[in-house]
Amino acid sequence: MYPEEIVTPCREDLITAGFEDLRTASEVESILDEKNGTVLVFVNSVCGCAAGSARPGAKLALEHDPRPNRIATVFAGVDTEATAKARSYMTGYAPSSPAIALFKGDQLVFLMERHMIEGRQPSEIAQVLTAAFDTYC
Which residue of the set 7, 39, 41, 49 is catalytic? Predict the structure, then answer.
């Protein structure tokens, strides 16, 4: 568990941008079991690539139209139950944080893992995400 003084600004960065903050497995289930529309799930982290690239890039991508119907976040290393539940929907992939997943209905259609985030600028992250939005949203 990370100290709250480190976690809070990272969490608030996405909440302020409109992300639903999911802290329990049941909250994750309620969104990902809907079967309708598209949902973007951001697996948040305290790491530098989350702060420097992933969060800014995701927020930039959300200025695009089309965009997912819902946007949500879980916090790796903090909300362990919610994160484990979210990752259970990302079958076939190793746990990654940060990570950005796009679901259409009940299917994972896109996943941007940490290795795809590291070393990229926010605009590059946004470009990859908006291409996924154009395809699936």
Answer: 49
